[in-house]
Design brief:
28% helix; Alpha-Beta Plaits; 2 domains; five-stranded antiparallel β-sheet; homodimer
Chain lengths: 163, 163
């Protein structure tokens, strides 16, 4: 995710909310040796459908082939590739860190407009929701304090509003 | 996700960040006919590993079998089942709605401590990061205005801080 040498693409795939659909989508990338950097899937309004945001590490040419093959999968409704200029991208991270320097941590939380969730037993839990590079930066700034556990949601992307 | 008849379990799976791992994990659920309700996967601090929060719709007994089989998968490091009482759960949603009643929408955004991202061309984009039931409730409250597009991150879960 932070590797500047890789080319990351964001795909939005709408699928039917059925057992096995996610496995088939992920399997298609796997068979071609492409690593999924992050993936977020959840039902949409009508819970018979789900929307997946996939960030994948690929070159452009084979990505076109993957998109063609995705279209052929049963239960896949449509696929859109969203470039950073057409998309609004956000990510969520919840992180537990050692809280020895609690005043510094609280200041950092404020600086990043993050949310202080809890602190107890020498640990603090903080949540941040922002654009992915900002989440990455927050994680980097927290590293020196000692990260106990973290989960990032993976990037989620929507179309930018029309002009 | 909002279906009260189903039994939803939250699993946290740590895996090596390699092509095909996600497909194998998702495939294991698919082969047994279990639907993955939501899944969020992203690299952790050391980017050679990823952490997956999976919400799956199952009965307890077969879940134990799935966990046993997950343990046997190559590149899977460990699996924890987190009950709501042991976990802090959060979810992110970005949603685009029709903005005909913009004052009402802004009031609703404030009420839910959500973030107003943009409004243009008769549409508004709003982001919310909260506990999953609250995100669900916000989505329900926005429905009457007309949802254009939405993506939820799926639930992410961390261990509650020790007492």
């Amino acid at each position: 995710m932070s590797n500047g040498n890789h080319q990351l693409h964001t795909l939005v795939v709408r699928v039917e909310n059925k057992a096995g659909v996610l496995a088939r989508v992920a399997g298609l990338f796997a068979r071609r040796g492409f690593n999924i950097d992050s993936l977020a899937v959840a039902p949409v309004v009508d819970e018979s459908f789900s929307r997946i945001t996939i960030v994948v590490d690929v070159e452009s040419a084979p990505l076109e082939q993957i998109v063609k093959q995705l279209h052929k999968l049963v239960n896949v409704l449509d696929i859109v590739e969203l470039s950073p200029t057409e998309a609004v991208e956000r990510e969520l991270m919840v992180i537990t860190v050692r809280s020895d320097a609690i005043d510094e941590l609280k200041a950092l939380t404020q600086e990043f407009h993050a949310t202080w969730l809890d602190d107890r037993s020498g640990q603090a839990m903080i949540s941040i929701s922002s654009f992915p590079a900002r989440v990455e930066e927050f994680e980097e700034r927290l590293k020196p304090y000692g990260i106990v556990e973290l989960q990032r949601s993976g990037k989620i992307a929507l179309h930018r509003l029309p002009d």
